[in-house]
């Protein structure tokens, strides 16, 4: 019985930690390709192969159809694209489009910021934002072009008005959805740490909702880019200068079908470049 009442006390001992080699912890680095699989590394090669296959099919179809006016070959389109870039003509049209796009896109982001602030600050603001997005988000931006032409005439103001309509609604919807998806536990943890108002938004809500917030500008950019090209196809020239859509429309009037396809290819290439070089880089750095 005494053995159960007074169990023997085991002697204490210490284990000395293994000392690392001097400087090993400082020099050890995780390789850049640690989280990457060979399949991911070869993704760009597979995509390039797909594009080459599509170009080959296009070339074959154009040769079978044998009508350059209706369907130029991939080689003819590529030659027209290179000639337009080398001569600087196509680059000039692209710069005009980007100048207008930047103004309308930034103004649309400012409007989306205002709507999102109203939605997260007060119940009435949230109801107002939901009403406005339900009304105007389904409305195509290009449908406002006749009204923009009536108000601002054939100029940059009409294009900017159309772009301002196409940008804020996807940004606002994604940002509000991201804020609503933030768990209440995170909000309570922030309040317990003394955060409130703007500090709670900056340190808790925005980091938690960042994936949804960043998807809004990406969608808004796609809407703005195709809306601008469509609007330029209608009247295109602003202050005597035309954009990329006007280049496509003018080439069609002159029956230069290869230049039409070159302009369309430029639209696609610019869209892919902005998607991969800008938005995916921002997501990789932040999210």
What is the CATH topology classification name?
A: MetI-like fold
CATH class: Mainly Alpha
Largest sheet: 2 strands, antiparallel
User: What is the string of SSEs from the N terminus onward?
Assistant: HHHHHHHHHHHHHEEHH
- Fraction of residues in β-strands: under 5%
Which bin fits the share of residues in helices? over 70%
Q: Determine the CATH superfamily.
A: MetI-like
3D structure, described in words:
With 287 residues, this protein is mainly alpha-helical. The protein has a single domain (71-286), classed as MetI-like fold. Helix content is 74%, strand content 1%. It has 15 helices and 2 strands. The protein has helices at residues 2-5, 24-27, 38-41, 43-65, 74-87, 89-121, 123-136, 145-152, 156-166, 168-180, 184-192, 198-208, 210-234, 244-253, 257-286; strands at 237-238, 241-242. It has a two-stranded antiparallel sheet. Strand 1 (237-238) and strand 2 form a beta hairpin. Helix 6 runs antiparallel to helix 7. The longest helix is centred in the middle third of the chain and has 33 residues, at 89-121. The protein is flat and about 95 Å long. 27% of the residues are buried.
